[in-house]
Amino acid sequence: MVRIVNSPEYCLQYLEQYATQEIFVIGLILGQSTSARENVIHLARTPEEKCSENTSEASYTLEKPESSKTLLNLSEAWVADHARHVTRMLPGGMFVQGIFITSDEDVFEDPNCFSKVKSIINHIYKALNSNPYMYGNCPYSNERLILHMSTSTKVLTCKSIEVGATKGTVIKPVEWKFLPKAQQWQRLDCYYEFDDIYPVIVKKSGISVKHQFQQILESAHKTIESSVMFIDGELKDGSEPLEQLIKKKKTKNNPKTVQNDTLKSMHVSLFVPFENSLPETVEYLECDGSIHFSGVVSSSVFMYPKATVSEAIAAVKQDIIRSLASRFTMHCDALIDDNLLPEEKVCFNEPPRRVLVPVGPLYLCDYLFPGEAPAEALLSSRELLDLQITEADVVCDVETPADTSEFDALDRDASSEELLATPQEASQFMYITGICFAMFVLIVSIIVHYYDSIVEVFSKILSKS
């Protein structure tokens, strides 16, 4: 069965724009893969290769005097780095589906070119697979698209290959369709609140901010994966298509609503099951400090209406974790000192907040550090997504900056040091609180377990008296 991929018509114009100039261009195919359909939302040209003495991600936009002009002298790592940056900007349920190329050579017929293409695809796969919390690789399929337009004949060819295969590469034909009308998408919005305290335990080897954030991310991932999702306040059947929910909602609100009317977004709520059993053994550790992780993550995902509720649930959860992983990475890269325990007793850190950038009828995202203006989002959108948008197009109110007034007050108050417990005092307080709570639970459980016996004893005492 031939794989069918649908994309908006402007993607054809985008390809023809570069093919007409008869230049070599490589870029990423961005879209969504579901059990019902393959959808492409955008084609993003990879910037011309640049380098610097510093190989960190922060040096991505530095210039190089000479750029790669052909496929064979292109760096696979450079394209993979582009895919890693772009994945941060994708909402949950969206992935890098492959690459597109405009060139004079036929990349499928030339053995050297095709070998290079396979190497690029595998580099992207490995780079995105290095951080599982980024959900860089689509969990539903190991096939990646290769779209080629000849600069001389303007002929368009698309095929797919499987990544991570241990045996020989299997090339499959793909039917690429350009749709004249905009595709229908369903938006799901969620606001997930974090308010947790994590202990900091410094070992002999020390501990870094990045390592501690990784532990927080692991804990958040387990919590979110175990949560139950409600859509518009109701628990839905996972196998039900979203379009059925849309029809029911339209009929409920207004039976005469026209089918083509724009539907408002669905509200998603995540509820974490309460664990009503205590562990058999509780281990108490003396900690050197604590991290209070607090805030609200704004999530907006877009699903093709024929996608199932289960796929929508997975996309929302992916979006929250991917957003956290992106912020943590950016925050750690921006830190000058990776020491987790500063000299100050209270240290406030604010990771970048999320903003939305439009791509057709959908929104991708970017992240702004405190003090940065929306203009910063324009730079990354043009560099990484090849988008020409204005500052007014950037939606900046999905998340508000953190309120630091509580910490500012502590800094101004000369007596604040007396109010702050030392790490040893803090650990003792956590220890005592844990024992008191455990004793309380034990007493209550004993009363409940022996309730009948206790009532009988008291009845005999009262009857004798």
Label this structure with key terms.
single chain, 11 helices, globular
Summarize the structure in words.
This protein has 465 residues and is of the alpha/beta class. The protein contains eleven helices and 13 strands. The strands form three sheets. A seven-stranded mixed β-barrel has the order 1-3-2-4-5-6-7. Helix 3 (111-129) links the parallel strand 4 and strand 5 (143-150). Helix 2 (76-88) crosses helix 3. It is globular and about 100 Å long. Residues 52-67, 257-261 and 414-438 have low confidence and may be disordered.
| End-to-end separation | 88 Å
Give unreliable regions as ranges. 52-67, 257-261, 414-438
Largest sheet: number of strands, sense, barrel closure: 7 strands, mixed, barrel
Percent strand equals 15-25%
Mean pLDDT: 81
Structure annotation, total helices? 11
Residue share in helix? 25-40%
Number of E-state strands: 13
Q: What would you report as the Rg, rounded to the nearest angstrom?
A: 27 Å
**Widest beta sheet: strand line-up:** 1-3-2-4-5-6-7
Provide the structure class. alpha/beta
In N-to-C order, the SSE pattern is EHEEHEHEEEEHEHEEHEEHHHHH
Overall 3D shape: globular
